[in-house]
Amino acid sequence: MTTGNNKPSTANDNKEQFELFDIDSPCRSICTTNNRGFCVGCLRSRDERFNWNQMTQTQRAEVMALCKRRRARIKQRMADREEVQLDLLLDSNHAPLMDDLFDPLLPGSD
């Protein structure tokens, strides 16, 4: 990518582009914090929420990137937990899986 003066663009050029567009608050009006102090709605820290209006667009973009990484970590932890639960469910050392109560009984399987 090149800039208007035919020079290749740099990371600084990309950061300056944030100044052209307002980054709106990611607030979802949930405003409840988890045990780590992050809002469960937008995943911003207390400081990030309280200082949002004073931040530059570049700082806001950095906060948004942090929130995206936080959300990805949460999703990964949730997937890991589901995988562990499935492993426990399928493990023969644990209670066997029950037949589906809603499946019709097969003839002769009284």
How do you describe this structure in short?
By secondary structure, the chain is mainly alpha-helical. The protein has helices at residues 11-17, 46-50, 57-90.
Please explain how this structure is put together:
The chain has about 110 residues and is mostly helical. The chain is about 40% helix and about 0% strand. It is built from 3 helices and no strands. It has helices spanning about 10-15, 45-50, 55-90. The model has no long low-confidence stretch (mean pLDDT about 75).
Average per-residue pLDDT, rounded, comes to: 77
Helix content: 40-55%
What is the oligomer described by this structure?
single chain
- Approximate shape: elongated
Q: Which strand-content bin applies to the residues?
A: under 5%
- Whole-angstrom Rg: 25 Å
Distance between the termini: 72 Å
| Biggest pleated sheet | none
In terms of structural class, how would the helical and strand content be classed? mainly alpha
DSSP summary, beta strand count: 0
